Amino acid sequence: MSRQTALVIDDERDIRELLTITLGRMNLDVTTAGSVAEARLRLAERKFDLCFTDMRLPDGSGQEIIELVSRQYPETPIAMITAYGNVDAAVVALKAGAFDFVSKPVDLAMLRRLVQTALKLGEERRSGTSLVESKLIGDSPAMEQVRATIAKLARSQAPVYISGESGVGKELVARQIHELGPRAGGAFVPVNCGAIPSELMESEFFGHKKGSFTGAHADKDGLFQVAQGGTLFLDEVAELPLHMQVKLLRVIQEKSVRPIGGRGEIAVDVRILSATHKNLARLVELGQFRQDLFYRVNVIELRVPPLRERKEDIPKLVGRVLERLARDSGEPPAKLRPEALKALLSYNFPGNVRELENVLERAVALCENRSIDIDDLRLLPAAPAETYDRSAMAERTAGAAEFPAHAPPGNTAPAAFNATGEMAIPADLAAAVAETERAAIMKALESTRWNRTAAAKQLGLTLRQLRYRLERLGIE
Ligand SMILES: Nc1ncnc2c1ncn2[C@@H]1O[C@H](COP(=O)(O)OP(=O)(O)OP(=O)(O)O)[C@@H](O)[C@H]1O
């Protein structure tokens, strides 16, 4: 078999030589170019399995080359060589279509892993194996669009921020991005950032050495080490406390972690995907999420549309859920009566696909002769459209809790606003805040039919945090 080939584009001779020697040791046949013009010639002469380009070249920019390769040679993965810590350049390159970046001075272990990933990626692109059938159900235009974006993003190593309401399928989308990409052989590690106690976060993410604090009885790998070679999915990323946001930013930029009590840095090769049902940009404005981290995790945003924007998908989803429930129970699948399907099609699903699953599970338990009638669905009466805007709602709750003066008018804060919607100065601030909190919690509980786990998720709280609030507010 002929050797695989790489093109290295850099105007610094030292870098060209270093990469030629290192890649040569990995059994790659290396060609070099010192300018954009020369790179164009080399690319036209033959096909490469992998490219590296510097950003600043004497006759143009590496971005031009990235765009050219992405457009004309889409089977060739291209990585950018950046100056250490130049996050802006890395972001620009990833947006332009680079699959990853290498920081100078080049870390050889990191480079080796990057090359392996890139070569695997190229093979997949040529064989088309990444076009495997998606586990995401639905063929509405909105879902097709999501699927096409997933296929594109799976090929990149860029951090992706997945936005969308609670229960729309953000985690499923993250899994697909992982499974369809070159990291599929590595682990997919989902982390609910809201569920880790703040004081344990550093050890959970970066690991610790035995004896580094009371209770550290043995060395422990952090989530980054567990996800080595794979993907770390930061679910509910908005819940990260500010001190962790700083640490995470450092890890993402430097691609290395330092376990608590550890002496050295450990290089980590992990792709970061993140999600939240909250409006992260708004939280940046409110000072609750660091702008620099937002910029870093949000290199590319993928919005998963709510179920009410893709109602065509409901019949297929219903079919799959009923099949799954039948498999679990060992009984034949239940069937929906036509009126029941009609009711589902005109329902707005504030809790999205998760709510649809819950509705069907309950209906299967309630129905007679495995035939689901409209009454078995127990759908909530239609609520005002505003109720469905979970992100706005969560954000409003967060904003109201921290900055009552900024809370917009609405029925989530009856005590703090007068009839014309103007902010009234509350005579008792604590009581007004408690009232706002109570109203938001009640709304979430009602919309989830008192499913506390689902309500906690909608409110961006852990179950424990919600229980505590219920107790404090005396809600049974
Ligand atoms: N398109 C889909 N096809 C099949 N199942 C789906 C789809 N979208 C969502 N689901 C199912 O809906 C449920 C909720 O999905 P998921 O946990 O991915 O949502 P989420 O957006 O991450 O929710 P949250 O914001 O609450 O964490 C899961 O059981 C998932 O399998």
Structure description:
- Residues 5-119 form the Response regulatory domain.
- This protein has 476 residues and is α/β, with parallel strands linked by helices.
- It has helices spanning 13-25, 36-45, 62-72, 87-96, 108-127, 141-154, 170-179, 201-206, 223-226, 242-254, 280-285, 291-297, 314-329, 338-345, 352-366, 374-377, 390-402, 429-447, 452-458, 463-473, and strands at 4-9, 28-33, 50-54, 56-57, 60-61, 78-83, 100-104, 160-163, 188-192, 231-235, 256-257, 266-267, 271-276, 300-303, 335-336, 371-372.
- The chain is built from 20 helices and 16 strands.
- β6, α4 (87-96) and β7 (100-104) form a beta-alpha-beta unit.
- The longest helix is centred in the first third of the chain and has 20 residues, at 108-127.
- The protein is globular.
- The termini are far apart.
- The structure holds adenosine-5'-triphosphate.
- Adenosine-5'-triphosphate binds at residues 136-138, 164, 166-172, 235, 277, 353-354, 357, 457.
- Adenosine-5'-triphosphate (ATP) binds next to α7 and α15.
Which radius of gyration do the C-alpha atoms yield?
A: 26 Å
Total number of distinct structural domains: 4
- Low-pLDDT runs: 128-133, 384-421
* Mean pLDDT over the residues: 82
Essential attributes:
5-stranded parallel beta sheet, Rossmann fold, Helicase, Ruva Protein, domain 3, globular, 16 strands, 4 domains, 20 helices, 476 residues, binds adenosine-5'-triphosphate, alpha/beta
Write the SSE topology.
Blueprint: E1 4-9, H1 13-25, E2 28-33, H2 36-45, E3 50-54, E4 56-57, E5 60-61, H3 62-72, E6 78-83, H4 87-96, E7 100-104, H5 108-127, H6 141-154, E8 160-163, H7 170-179, E9 188-192, H8 201-206, H9 223-226, E10 231-235, H10 242-254, E11 256-257, E12 266-267, E13 271-276, H11 280-285, H12 291-297, E14 300-303, H13 314-329, E15 335-336, H14 338-345, H15 352-366, E16 371-372, H16 374-377, H17 390-402, H18 429-447, H19 452-458, H20 463-473
Parallel strand pairs: 1-2, 1-3, 3-6, 6-7, 8-13, 8-14, 9-10, 10-13, 15-16
Antiparallel strand pairs: 4-5, 11-12
Adenosine-5'-triphosphate (ATP) binds at residues 136-138, 164, 166-172, 235, 277, 353-354, 357, 457.
